[in-house]
Amino acid sequence: MSDTADIFVSYKRKDKAFVADLVRELEESGFSVWWDTRISAGSEFDTVIETALKSARCVVVVWSDSSIESEWVKNEANEGLRWYRGRGANSNIRPSCNIG
After folding, report:
1. Structural domain contains residue 96
2. d(CA 54, CA 50)
């Protein structure tokens, strides 16, 4: 996988099984996907995430009962929104499914 992914996925660890299926489906559809399983041991977690977030072409946030409580997920969602608005991109924010 190259350093730049089509899609950065932000989620709460509790939702990992759902996200794994989502990532598989996205990859089978031809998209490159970055999610935190791509972090190498010994890496600076926050630096790696910030780099991946800012280089991705799209940010997908998996909102669930657990992720709405996560400061990491909220921060990644806000950073993604700021980054893309700053690049003059239109944000398309809409719910896509319920994993509740």
Report:
1. no
2. 6
According to DSSP, the residues that pair with 11 across neighbouring strands are none
Domain membership of residue 98 (yes or no) is no
* pLDDT at res. 85: 73
pLDDT of amino acid 64: 93
DSSP element (H, E) containing 73: helix 71-86
DSSP tag of 8: E
- Which residue range(s) make up the domain with 36? 7-86
pLDDT of residue 87: 63
What does the alpha-carbon distance between residue 31 and residue 7 come to, in Å, rounded to a whole number? 7
**2: which DSSP letter?**
-
